[in-house]
Amino acid sequence: MKTKPINTSLNDRITAFAKAGALLTSYLEGTLTALTNDGANWQERIQQRLELAQRKNSWFTEDTLEFAITQWAEALNEENLTYWTQEYPLDKVTEKNIALITAGNLPLVGFHDVLSVIIVGHHAMIKNSSNDDVLTPLLLEIATSFCADLASSYSYVEGKLEHYDAVIATGSNNTARYFEHYFGKKPHIIRKNRNSVAVLTGNETLEQMEALSKDVFLYFGLGCRSVSHLKVPKGYNFDLFFNGMFVQKELIKNEKYLNNYDYNKAVYLMSEFDLLDNEFLLIKEETSSYSSPIASLGYSFYEKLEDLAIEFDQNADQLQCVVAQGPAAAAVREKLGDRSAPQLVHFGTTQTPRLYDYADGIDTIQFLLTLS
C-alpha cells in the first residue's frame, strides 16, 4: 500500500487533536455553534454519528456513548497530550505502516492505539471492528478538519492487511492465537482477555461502594477494566456492597442486560449454585476464574492481604486493574512494586484511564519508537 508522506509536525498533531477535544467539549456542553472551522454543522454531524453507532451496536447506549465521548474530550487537550509525549524522543521517527486491529466491545476502545500511532508520526492502517466502526472515523474527521495534512496519517482497511511494518491487535484469547500465527513474524503487540478485580476488607464506606458500582456496571461490565470479581475476607457481609450497587438499579431496564440477567440466573439455579441476588446483579463464589458473565460477579475469599498480593503477582497476565484502597492497596502495591500491569486504582476509576495508562501495561509509544 502506498501512502502519502506524513508532513505534519508533532506540534501540528497535538494541536489538531486538542482542538478536536475542545470541539467535543463544546458539543457536550451544548455550546457548539452551528457552523465551525470548516463550515460543517458539527453539532448535527456528531449527533447523527452517535445515533448511527447506537443503531449498529445496541450495547452502545446514549449514556455509554456520552461517557466515552466525555472521557476523550477531557483527555484530548494540549496539556495532557504534551505531558504524555514529552519524555519520548519523537523528533527522529522514520515513518512506518502500523496495522491496527481494534476490538469493538466498548465505544472507542481502539482509539488510544490509533492516537498513539498518529502522534508518534507513523501511518495507522485501521481495521475497525464492525461493532465500533463509526466513532474512530468521527474523531479523526474532526481532528483532520483542523489540520488537513493529518489525513496522510491514517487509512482504513476493509479486506486483507498488506504492506504493514508492525501490528497492534486486540481480541479474545481465541483470536489472539490466530493473530500470533498470522502476524507473529512482524513486530507486534497482541492483547488477549484480561479482567479486573476489587479487593474489599469490610471497612469500606457506602460512598466507596457506590463508586465501585461504576467499575462494575459502566459499559455493562463488558470491558477488561470492568470489575468482574471480588476478593473478600472470610465471613464478609455483602449488605453494604449491595447497598452501593443499588444506585445502578435502572440498568435492569435495558433489554439486552435483562436478557443476560434472566439467562444467567436460570443457568445458575439449574446448576444449583448458591447465589446472592439483588434483582439486577447475581454474585456467586468462584475460585477458578476472574471472569464472569454479564449481570453477574464472582467472588472468592482471602485470609491475609499478603497472600492476595502474591496471587495477583502470580496471575498478573490475567489482570488489567486491581481496585483497592487503604491497607489492601498498600499490601498489593508492595508486592507488585513497579509492575505496570495490573494497574492499582481507587474505587470508581477503572474506566477513566489517562493517556499514559497503557493496556496490559505495554508502553505503546515505546513499542512504536523501536520500529524507527
Keywords:
Aldehyde Dehydrogenase, Chain A, domain 2; 13 helices; 15% strand; alpha/beta; 2 domains; 372 residues; five-stranded parallel β-sheet; 41% helix; globular; Aldehyde Dehydrogenase, Chain A, domain 1
Q: Please identify the top-level CATH class of the largest domain.
A: Alpha Beta
Could you estimate the helical fraction of the residues in percent? 40-55%
Briefly note the CATH topology name of the largest domain: Aldehyde Dehydrogenase, Chain A, domain 1
Q: Could you tell me the mean pLDDT?
A: 94
What's the story with the biggest beta sheet? Answer: 7 strands, mixed
Tally of individual helices: 13
Shape: globular
Please describe the topology of this protein:
Elements: H1 10-29, H2 42-56, H3 62-75, H4 78-85, E1 97-101, H5 111-120, E2 123-127, H6 135-146, E3 154-156, E4 166-170, H7 173-183, E5 188-191, E6 195-199, H8 206-217, E7 227-233, H9 239-245, H10 255-270, E8 275-277, E9 282-285, E10 296-302, H11 305-314, E11 319-323, H12 327-336, E12 343-345, H13 364-369
Parallel strand pairs: 1-2, 1-4, 2-3, 4-5, 6-7, 6-11, 7-10, 9-10, 11-12
Antiparallel strand pairs: 8-9
Q: What can you tell me about this protein's structure?
A:
- The chain is an alpha/beta fold and 372 residues long.
- It contains 13 helices and twelve strands.
- Strands 8-9-10-7-6-11-12 form a seven-stranded mixed beta sheet, with helices on both faces. Strands 3-2-1-4-5 form a five-stranded parallel beta sheet, with helices on both faces.
- α12 links the parallel β11 and β12.
- α1 packs across α3, α8 packs across α9 and α11 crosses α12.
- The longest helix has 20 residues.
- It is globular and about 65 Å long.
- The model has no long low-confidence stretch (mean pLDDT 94).
